[in-house]
Amino acid sequence: MNQPVIPEISGYAPTPPAARMENHGAHMVKIAMASGQDVFARTGSMIAYEGFIQYEANPPAVRQAASQWLTGEGTPVMKCSGDGVLYLADYGADVVCLNLNNEALSVNGTNLLAFDAHLQWGVERVKGLAKFAGQGLFNVGLSGTGWVALTSRGTPIVVDCGRGEDETYVDPDALVAWSSGLKIKSKRTMKASALIGRGSGEAYQIAFSGQGFVVVQPSEDSTDRLRVRG
What we know:
3% of the residues lie in helices and 48% in strands. By secondary structure, the chain is mainly beta.
């Protein structure tokens, strides 16, 4: 009688946390929780936890800071507190962990998975793009010293804009995040959108210059942008 084949699973076992936020594989973030070190996370992103961790959906501090976070379902953020290890994911999307050191970051709200609650944050209109393809562009601004976990629809690329003098151009529907100190402007390409980018309507790009980086995902989904009518 044939013996059942037991798959080798030991390689997937959790390891002791080495940082506040770190990847467990490409599609999951592992967060070391401790008393007084709360985290804001996307509602519904918790997939597992160890220890004692509590959750508060849409806390007052979030409602005040994110009054313009328009999703049709209210503010999609929960407060996580307690002691233990917290695991978050977003439907198999790639996860990128960043450690801000007195820095500022502008993030597409749909790509924001989790961040340290002590960071300063709020929903902001992107400066320099008051009118972009007929719409205003809103992002979540984060600043201070602490950890941030982002998601990407596919393996992202991080472009260092300070390596050369040329501007970096990005399809707005592929943008994940960028350093807030970068100079930005919009550009309209007078060619068919089927040839340049895959955005709807006409071919628009955002140009970045200065010292900093831009995170770009391979998936260009116009429904992912946090936009409201300007």
